[in-house]
């Protein structure tokens, strides 16, 4: 059984990822500062900003495990504004550097890491270049949190150049949701500006976990980044109407229909076989 270390496995997305990976036959180790309430995988308490601890965790821990085959790196302060900018910068960039550098020492060539929809230019005070937004234009970070996600994407590209065996899959997740979050969705309809900051998108945590597993299974080497969102918006208003009302002057790269997301998941569908199954509409 292949063993995967999930950093941030106690967090919102991490708990869904650990569950999905365990259910699909991966041997999972959860590396986090805090334990998970789920207890689905062995937990190792760690501070990822301490390089020595990360090398230790990825190369083997006494009688717990002797090797790790792949890493899912999700641990981070997960949004702008939760801590001082410099604290977000320090925690997030150092954790990501340490995970990739320690993985090299441990001989691990398969890493999936969490980037973010924010690199697409959220909250879109400057409108995006076109719709649906995708991976084809350069990142436009508008916060320190997003700046770090952008720097990480650049850094990983260079690390792949240094190590041609490395396969690094960056997932630009939309806003992560659990089923219990969906009760709040109908209220968005009365005020579309409540959610226009990310083009009314979201990602069901279970489909986020699916994308992570598909990223681990992806063929090939090198860096690839993917936008990962649920297939629909948070709105009842059809997407063409939202575009017409809020972005009448923006180029449409391709026609949109129904309630489809304006965060293009076409690349993930094409290259990962990502086929999200969950929508808030089944739960409200
Ligand atoms: N939640 C979202 O809407 C969202 C959207 C896009 C991207 N992301 C990204 O997805 C990832 C997971 O987000 P989440 O919502 O599950 O966050 P979360 O805060 O629920 O979980 C993050 C986990 O990382 C751990 N952690 C943070 N820094 C650590 C450190 N230095 N050492 C050890 N553990 C540390 C925390 O203890 C926590 O359990 C993050 O990288 C985040 O930036 C999240």
TrEMBL record:
Protein name: Nucleoside-diphosphate-sugar epimerase
Organism the protein comes from: Glycomyces harbinensis
SUPFAM superfamilies: NAD(P)-binding Rossmann-fold domains (SSF51735)
Every NAD-dependent epimerase/dehydratase domain range: 4-177
Pfam families found in the cross-reference section: Epimerase
